Structures
1.
Amino acid sequence: SKLVRCGLAKALKPKEGFGGIVLSAEASAKVSPADLEVILKRGVGGVNCSWNRLDQVPSRTLGKPSLHRRLPYLLAANPVNYGKPFKMNTAEALAAALYIAGLPEDARSLLAPFQWGPEFLRLNAEALDAYKGAGDAAGVAACEADMEAQRRAKAGLKLERQGLQSDDYLAGMDLPPSESESEYETEEEEGGIP
C-alpha cells in the first residue's frame, strides 16, 4: 500500500500479534480520545482490503478484541467513494482514528501523500472536531447521534420545502422547483401559455 511505501505504516500478517487499537466495522465501541494512550504506546491498525472483500477478513483474530474500535459517521473523500458515509479507505480510517484520539497533526501527515487527503479533513472538519472533544466512546456515540438528528431534521426541512414526504419515491432526489397548478392557471388565463 502507499502508506507502507511512504514509511507511514507497517504491514502485518493477520495472525501476527498487535497490541494497539484495531479499526473494525464489527466493533461495538467507537474510537475516542480515551484511546490516545494505547495509540501512542502501541499504534492503530486497519485492514487494507476492498470493501467487497471485508467479510473474508478474520477481523476477530486481529489484535485484542477489547481494543477493537469502530469509526463514527464520516464521509469518504477518496475518488472511489467520495461523499459516501463509512466508505473510507484505510488511509482515511487511520487518519480519522488519529484525529479523534487527539493527534490531528499526525492525521494530516498520514494523509499528506494523497491528493484528496486535505479534502477528507475539510469534508469532515466539524464532525472530527466534535468527536475529538467528546472524551470517551460514549461521548463520541452521543455526538454521532446528535449530528444524525441534525442531518435528519435538515433533510426533513428540505423535503418539506419540496412538498414531499419521506416515503415519497421522489424524496431522495434533488429536483428543481416545479410550478404549482395555480401559477399554471394564472399564466394560461393571461394568454402566456396557448
Note: Residues 31 and 97 are 6 Å apart (CA to CA).
2.
Amino acid sequence: SFNNTPFQPIWLNESRLLAALKGTTWSTYYEFMRAELMAENNQIINMLTEGNDGLAAGVHVYYQNANSSCKTTVNNTCTLEDPTPHMAALMLVRQEHWYYFGSTGWLDKDFHWSPLYDKLSQCGKPQETAQRNAMIWTREYDNCNVMLNCSDATPCKGQKSGPCCIGTINVKSDHI
C-alpha cells in the first residue's frame, strides 16, 4: 500500500517496492476485489496510484448470491448479484494492462460471459482520472461514463458488509 494506516500490523511500502522492481515485468493481483470493500477501505486510492505508476494488474471478484439464504447445489442455481458495481469500480481505476475476472469460484464452470463485458468493450480509452465527490466516484471514457455511488452505508441485499455501492456504465448514445 502507498498509505500506512494507523494500527496496521503489517505494511509494505509500495513506493519502495515499485522502485526496486523498476525495469522488470510484473503485475499485481487483487483477489476478492469488491466495490464495497474498495470504497470502504480506500483501496481505490491505492489502485489509482498503481495504475498511474504503470503497474499492470488483475482483479478478481467473487460474485455473491443475490439472496443470501439461497444455497447453490447440484439441483439448485441461485441468482447472482448484479456485477455492475464491481465492473464500474474496475473502470474507475483501469489502466493499460488491467484485467477483470468475475466468477463464483476457481473452476471453468464458475466463469460465465456477461453481456456487460460487451458493453464495456465500447467504452474506449479513459479521458481523465477518476473524480471523487465524497463517496461518489466518476470517470469519463471516449464512449461512456462510469459512476460508482457508495454513499449508502447500509449493505445491499445479499451483501455481507460494507456500503451499498450502485454502479452505472452509460454508453454515449452516438456510439450505440
Note: The CA atoms of residues 145 and 170 lie 5 Å apart.
3.
Amino acid sequence: MSEDSVQELELISTIGFNGSVPHGLLVHPDGEHLIYPLGCTVVIENIKTHEQNFLSGHTNDVSCLAVSKSGKYVASGQITHMGFKADVIVWDFEAKEPYATFTLHKVKVEALAFSPSDKYLVTLGGRDDSSVVVWDLKMREALCGAPSALQSAGTVYTVQFMNTLTTNLSPEEIKL
C-alpha cells in the first residue's frame, strides 16, 4: 500500500475531559457551548445537542484557553519541548478556523486573556520564557512585551485585563 492511498483519519467525537489545564473548561458567552482542550485539539461542544467541533492546529498539548467577551474569538496556547517556541492560535469561533497564529514564547504559553473590547490579546510565557506580550488582533502583531517576573519573585501563572483607571470617562468611552 503506497502512502498516496492511505486516508487521513478524521476525528468524529471525543469522550471525556482531562481537566489538567488550569481554567480549561470554559462556557462560551452564548451560553450554548463548552470549550475545552483535549491533547493538541480544542473541543467546542454544544451543551444541548452534544454536537462537537474540533479546532486542530497545535503541534503539542494545549496548555491554556481563553474566550473573548463577545465570543467572536477563542485563543489557545500550547506547550512544546525545550529549545522550541510555543504557538498561540486565535480562532474565529463562528468559522471554526484559525484567525491568527502568534509564535514568540519559549517552551510553554502559561495563560491568555482578551481585552474587554476584543482588540487585544495578552499572552504569558511559562517558566522558561517569563514574558508577557500584548498582541493587536486587527493588525495580527505584537504591540509590546516585558518580563513578567523577577527571578527572585517566583513564577507568574495567570494574566487578566483589569480596568483600574481613575477617570471621568464613561465605560462606553473607555475602549481597551
Note: The mean pLDDT is 87.
4.
Amino acid sequence: MARKLDIQPKRFGLRYDPPVIVLEYLVPSTGKLFHHRMRVRGLTRDANSLELAELLRFRHPNFLHQDLVALNQVVRLVDKMKEHLFGATSTSSGAKTDTKSGNILSSKIDINQYDLNKVTEAELAAHKAKMQQTFELHKKRPGDPGFVYDVQREFDPEEPSGWDEEEEEDSYEASI
C-alpha cells in the first residue's frame, strides 16, 4: 500500500480536452500549493462513473486516499466531466445522487429482496457504493469522539450455529 502524503486537498478543477481532473493541494510543512493532474482514462458516454472513480483512486492513492477525499466526490467530478463532454445527466452506476451533497440516496437494489450474485455489474456497483458510503458515515477514526482502539466483544448467539460444535471436531480428528 502506498504511503499517504502529508497534504491537504483544497479544490478540484476539470480540464475537458484531454479529460483531466486537477487537484490543488497544500503541503502544510512548506505552506506551498501544488497541482496534481490525473488523466481520466476510459471516459466514454457509457462508462461507469463509480468504476472510473475507483480506478482514479487506485492509480493516485496518495492524492485520492479515502481519508483525504470522499469517493462520491470523485464520482461527481467524473459525472460532471461526462455531462459536459457527452451530455449524460445521470450516474452510470445506477444510483440516484443528491445534487447538493453528492451522497448516494438510493439504489435499485434492495439487499433483502435480491440475490446480489444475480444482479448486473452496474447494480452491484451502485449497491457497493451505497454500502461504502454508509460505512464511511459510521466509521470512527483516531481523534474522533468515542473512538476506542481494539474493541473486543463477546457475542452470545440466540441459537446454535451448528458449524462449531465439538462433535464435528472430534469426528474430524478421528478421521485423520
Note: Helices lie at 49-59, 71-86, 121-138, 166-175.
